[in-house]
Amino acid sequence: MREHDMLEKEEIFSKVLRAGRRTYFFDVRATKADDYYITITESKKFTEEDGSFHFKKHKIYLYKEDFVAFTEILAEMTSYVLNHKGEEVISERHQKDFKKEYAFEKSNDEILPQTSSFTDIEFDDI
Length: 126
Fold this sequence. Notes:
Blueprint: H1 3-8, E1 11-19, E2 22-30, E3 36-47, E4 53-63, H2 67-85, E5 104-107, E6 110-113
Antiparallel strand pairs: 1-2, 2-3, 3-4, 5-6
């Protein structure tokens, strides 16, 4: 067995985030010198036309000396996205089974869809 494979087996602590077709695995692992590092693995399920499926995995190794800078940049990037685009997931609108939920207001015994704001979207954004 390769040394790399041996290191991968030293899981100390794990968390899983299931997000639709993607699953994220966060693992604390031990090095040969018994120091800790983190691996973040994205596993994405792909279904073939015949119904069979496979997973593609991507892994990031994050070492202690990079924790502070990584955390700061990740917080900055997530804040940027949320501040500029909000929390709504725009791509959901383009899924074939997406159903827009409307809030309704009552006006003179008529029920009308409530219009709160308008978002101008360019063709290139789609």
